[in-house]
Amino acid sequence: MIRRRPTYYCISDPHVARHDWQDVERIDAIKFAQEPSWPWLRRADVLFVPEWHTPRMGIERKEWFSTDLSRGAYGGWTVTYFMLQLAYWLGAREVYLL
Questions:
Q1: 30: helix, coil or strand?
Q2: Is the dihedral of CA 72, 74, 77, 78 positive or negative?
Q3: Considering the entire predicted model, what is its pTM?
Q4: What letters, b where the CB count within 10 A reaches 16 and e where it falls short, cover 17-31?
């Protein structure tokens, strides 16, 4: 059996942070979370990223993908979308989702 430990761990849903904050604190990885999770994860070693709300459908689409997480990231309603922005910011130019 191959055991893998994550290099990075991300949370974009404050409900997950509220319910699982003790488990998150035990994870040995670099942690990123969008700011709405701060009340539950402020004791952990988490790097917080400002959350920019993605506009609702029907609004003219612009660039809703952040390339600079020091300024913020779009929520996109999924941790995968947050992680794609993180991967780009960290230098990845090709990402494979399995």
A1: strand
A2: negative
A3: 0.79
A4: beeebeebeeeeeeb
Beta carbons within 10 angstroms of residue 92's beta carbon: 10
Edge-to-edge strand ranges of the sheet holding 30-34: 8-11, 30-34, 46-49
DSSP character at residue 36:
G
Dihedral in degrees, nearest 10, Cα atoms 14, 55, 64, 88: 10
Under a CB-based contact definition with an 8 Å cutoff, are residues 44 and 26 in contact?
no
Q: Phi/psi at 40 (nearest 5 deg)?
A: -100, -20
| Per-residue pLDDT of the chain in tens (98 residues, 90 and over written 9) | 667 778 889 998 889 999 999 998 888 899 999 888 888 888 778 999 998 876 666 666 666 889 999 999 987 678 898 999 999 999 999 988 88
Beta bridge partners of 73: 51
Instruction: Provide the H-helix boundaries in 1-98.
Output: 14-26, 38-41, 79-89
Q: Rounded CA gap, 34 and 14, in Å?
A: 8
